[in-house]
Every structure is written in structure tokens, then in C-alpha cells.
Amino acid sequence: MKRLFITLMLVFGVASPSFAIDGTEMLKTIDANLNPESFEMYRKLINVEPNGSKKEFLMYSVKKGKDKIASVFLSPASEKGRSTLRVGENMWLYIPNVGKPIRITSLQSITGGIFNNADIMRLDYHQEYHCETVEKEAGGYLLHLKAKTSAVAYDKIKMWAGGQKLLPTKIECYAASGILLKTLYFSDIKSFDDTLTRPSVIETDSPLYKGYKSIMLFARVKAMALSDEVFTLTFMSKLESLR
Amino acid sequence: MKSFKVLRFIIIIIPIIFAPQILLSREEYSFDLSEIEEAVEKKPYSLSGYMEFRLNFLYLDEDAAFYTLKFFDSATTNRLDEYKFGLLLDADYQKQNIGLFLRTNIDAVKSDLESDMSAKIFEGYLSLTPSFFFAAGLGKKTLNWGTGYAWNPVGFVQRPKDPGDPGLPREGIVVAAADIIKSYGGQLQTVSLTPVFIPVYEGVNEDFGEINHINFAGRAYFLFYDTDIDFMFLTQGSKPFRFGADFSRNITSNFEIHGEFAFINNFEKKIIDSDGNLFEKKYDARSYLLGVRYLTSFNTTIISEYYRNGTGFTTEEMEDFFDLIDKQKNLSLTPATDSLLKEASSLADKSYGTRNPMKDYLYLRISQREPFDILYFTPSITGIYNLNDRSYSLSPEFLYSGVTNLELRLKGSFLKGGPGTEYGEKLNDYRVEIRARYYFDAVKLMNL
User: What is the predicted pLDDT for the residue at B107?
Assistant: First the structure.
């Protein structure tokens, strides 16, 4: 038994060069570097078509803790007042004309384009993914993430992270079949306040949408104390009052 | 001549619709974070909405019962072209925790039969939100109870949806309502209570039910084990006492189920037989709905619902109604037949002619998001099948929203059913609708 244990230790110790790096802690650090515990932010989403035409959306969002995020569209006029809420794996969309929140799924997209609902209402990475392995690369690390449950939008993620403050630079998202669904590129690192410095631009492309591109711009990301009642269906029509 | 008018309209409207896209397609994309800083400036007021043009071409069924009811005392036609204009305007003012909201809807229609315009206040209320835990509202408000997509048997305090277009804004009712919200950790994540008072007097909510009552309704909502659960009731007053429940839950990231159940105590149903005799039936009605929403890996969304309408007419009751109209149609118009057809017409407006007046229905909607990589393009098809008389409607639809704030829709509806069936006796056999809807934010447009 003792011999078997030593053999296993040797096999896995040699086979895994990333043995000494704690991927879970690294992922938690990346999450903490991307946003405060409870905060508000403005985001602009731009969908660009191959012919250069574009469609833009402006959103105000609030996030609290590990699993609560709510957003309201400020423009364009066709989307104004629409709000989304995510509590864990539950997602809802409120459309002012319909007047009632309806359940939506993470793989749908409320804006069209390459970003789906899971991208727009993203929870902390460590909340949804296990870090299976970490590879040391020139200038940073490559984290191999695996979805904790089948309810998560992407089955596997490859995350490249680096820099003085550990931040993601590129993320590849894969389906359970192994198909690459999309790639996210993080750029333009900006200080939002004394404590938060993070990429302010995320660009994405997808082999499934050749020639198309979607961009997410971040502005006014700042810590904010929020009540849990903000993240309820009843409050969805009143989200803009938080601004 | 009529076709020429339509063609001329289309020739004029198409360049107007597509001009912004042509201009946009030449635009280079760039981004500047300072743009967002300017755009997020908040004003205490807002004025926004949409305007729309609709062209409806209705191909009428001259043998249908509802055709007889519409044209029995006027000139007949086998095709009806309607030109419609609509304007929905939302005005909102917020000062700290007090808000005022007004939604007005203007509809204008021009056809060979009518030329009419109506303006209605859909909503107009004062709201008070002193804390995250409590909100109150007073005025005309659209409440939406129920988790069903096409139908809501538990919608005790709202006007029914159009299952063919469930997202259309609806007129509210005058209420005094409140929301009390509490969040918890653990499996019970949220509880909210919504008490509602509905006054029904002459000039106030007259179409809700019997006048001279203040009705009380309530709803309790729970987010429990990741499931939305509601319990609701409406006390005896303008309408008989009723209670119900609904639920909705995501089973996986692409599969949702929902359902509703409603019980109405001593529901009164007015029935007319084939000789024109009126009856009243009183019974406890049970209605329910079960539905699913499924998203495939090819981005196809499937929504399906089964609806049991406990207040609906049986096949025999519906056939009696159609027989009555058929008999009267074959008689020459005398004061007696005229009176019976008027009686039938009045009943049609209240019950027989309302949307889905019978007992059992199946609903299926299949929509494909952005096929062939065409962004913002969604073709879909919707079918409503009457399980009792096996008649149905089938509506293919093409929706394009690629130009900012502009939505273009081409929709057809084909109704199929034999004599004496719901869809077989509708006014038209098929119809085509072209709709262009433009959304605007008047505050930004006019730099108010």
C-alpha cells in the first residue's frame, strides 16, 4: 500500500509541472482584481458586422457578492428600460412593454452578436469553474478551467493571465464537444479608482460568426454598498433609480 | 387601383427604412471611453416610445360566421386592406423616491370600412419607493401575473394577452398596490407580497366587472430552490372569488418549465343556443397551463404550452352559436333576424369572439436566431391548435432589427378549420402584415 502511494506520488508529481501553483487561489485573485465585492459600473456593448456597420448598447449594472448581478439598458431607445437579473444560475429579463420578468437562459443573447447572456451577466470565474491545471508561460500563466456544473455556459475555458497585477489577457471558451465557441481579448488597463485597476476593453470574436466582432467597454466601475432586495424580480423595473 | 396604392406606399417606405442602414454600413467603428462618460449623465425625466406603421391585408372568408356578424348590415367585400399608425409614448419623472409615469397609446386606422383614431392612457400612476423593501403605487397600472407565455389563467388583475403577439403593451386598470420585498440566504432566497385594491365604479374600471365594489387581490412570490413560485387570489366582488398558483424553473441552462393553475368559484357562463335562446351556466371553473422553453445548440428557441381553459365553451356550445348565425344568414334580413344577429354580435364581443374561447389549446413557437450568420434577423413560426375542434392558425414571421431603433416585421397568418370550428369561422382565411416600428428617446433626440 505504502509502495503504491509513493508510486502514485511520483507519477503525478512528475507528470504535472504545475504542481506547486494553486490554481484555485490564482483564479480567486484574478476575480478580485477584476472587480470589487459589491459595485456598480457602466458598460457599452458594440456589435460590429463584417461590413463595418455596428450596433451599440449602453448598460448600467450592479453586482453583489459571488452570484448576484443586475443590469438595465440605457440606450438605444429600442432597448431602454429592459433589465436583466441573475441570481446564481437563475436569469430573468424584464421588458417594459411586457411588464413582467421572464426566465431566460445563459446561452441566449439579449443583445444579439457574439456576447451571450452568460458573458453579459458574468459571475466570478471561481464561482462557476474549477481550475484544473496551471501552466507557467513567458510573461504569465495559462489556467485550464472546467465548469463546475452542466448549467454553466462554457464547458472549458483556457485563460491566459499575467502582468504586475494578475489580470486576464485572453480567454478561449469551449463547448463540451471541444469546439472553440469564442475568444475574449482583454486590453486597455485603466485605474477606475484608488483600489481598482483592470482592463477597460474586452473584444471578442468567434469562429461561429466569421467576420463579426463584439466589444465591451467598461466605465465608472466603483465599489457600492447594495441591499440584497435590489436583486429581486420586483426591483427589476426600478433598477435605474440606483443611478 | 388598390394594389397600385399599396405598391406606391411600399416604394416610398422602403428607402426610408433602409436609408439609415446604408449610411451606417459606411461608418467605421471606433470606441472612446469618454463617450460613455457623456452618455451616462442622468436626468430626472424621460420621454421615449415608438411609432409604427402597419399594413394589413386581410383575405376574408365570405362563408364564415364572423364574416356574417361583421357585414350582415353593410356592404360586403372579400379583401380588406388596413393602414394603421400607432404611437406609444412613455413619460417618466423621478424626484428622489417619488415617481410619476404616464404611458399613452394612439392608434389610427384607415380602411374601406372605417377611418378612426383612438387615444388611450394605458398607464398613469404615482409611485413611492421609500426603501428597497417597500414600494407603493396609485393610479392606472398594468399588472402582469402568471408565468405563461401565450396565456395567463392566473392573470386575475390584467387584460388578457393576444397569444399571437404576447409582447404587445396592454391597457392597465386603476389600482392602489404595494410591494413588500425581503431577501434571505439559503434555499428561500426571496419573498415578496403584493396587495392590490381595485375600485370598480361608474367611470372607473367599468369593464373589470360588476360596478360598486372595491375588490381586493393579492400575490405572494417566493424564489425557493431556484424556482419562481406565486400564489394569488381575488376576493368576491365585481367578479367571483378566485385563487391560483404558478411556477417557473430553469431545469438546465437551455431548458425552462412553467405552469399555472386557477380556480374560479361559481363562474357564470352565458350561452346561446341555435334558436337564439340565452342560458346561464354556473360552475366551479378550473384552468391550467403547462409550458416549456427550450434552446437548441443551433440557437433555435422552442416554446410550447398546453392550455386548459375551464371557462371556455365546449365544441357543442360553439357549434350552436355558429348554427344560429348560419340560420339567420339564410333568412332575409327582418327586424327579428337583425335583432338575433345583433345579440350574437354582442355575445361575440364578450365571449364567443374573444381570443381562444374554447377549452383546450396547444401553442408552439419555433424561432431561429440569426440564421446563416445574419445578425439581428429572427424568422419564426407560431401555431395555435384547438384540440377540441381541430382547427388551427399558423403564423410565419420574419423580424429584422439590424438598424438601431428600427424593427421590421413581415408576418402572415393562415387559419384552417372546417365549418363550425373556431378558426374555420373567423373573419379571414389568411392575412399578411407588414410592420415598421421606430423607437425613439425624445430627450436625446431633442437634447432636452
Answer: 96
Q: What is the pLDDT of residues B64-75, one digit of tens each?
A: 888 888 777 676
B413 found inside a domain: yes
Question: Taking CB atoms and an 8 Å limit, are B90 and A96 in contact across chains?
Answer: yes
At B304 the pLDDT is 97
The domain spanning residue B332 has which CATH number? 2.40.160
Q: What is the pLDDT of residues B240-287, one digit of tens each?
A: 999 999 999 988 878 899 999 999 999 999 898 888 888 899 999 999
Asked if residue A9 belongs to a domain, the reply is: no
Domain membership of residue B403 as a residue range? 60-445
- How is residue B34 written as a grid cell? 469618454
Domain total in chain A: 1
Chain A residue with Cα closest to B444: A77
Q: Across the interface, which of B33, B94, B375 has its CB nearest the CB of A112? A: B375
Q: Check if the beta carbon of residue B438 is closer than 8 Å to that of residue B52.
A: yes
Nearest CA in chain B to A153: B253
Contact across the interface for A212 and B179, Cβ inside 8 Å? no
Q: How many angstroms separate the CA of residue B206 from the nearest CA in chain A?
A: 23
Task: Write down the ipTM of this complex.
Answer: 0.79
Q: Which chain A residues contact residue B144 at CB under 8 A?
A: 98-100
Q: Which residues of A touch B145 (CB under 8 A)?
A: 100
For A95-128, the pLDDT digits (tens) are 887 778 888 877 777 777 788 888 888 888 998 8
For residue B66, which of B421, B411, B332, B433 has the smallest C-alpha distance? B421
Q: Do A150 and B258 touch (CB under 8 A)?
A: no
DSSP lists the bridge partners of residue B380 as B367, B397
Task: Collect the ranges in chain B with pLDDT lower than 50.
Answer: 1-4, 6-7, 9-29
Domain carrying residue A178: 21-242
Within a domain: residue A14? no
Whether residue B9 is contained in a domain is answered as no
Domain count across chain B: 1
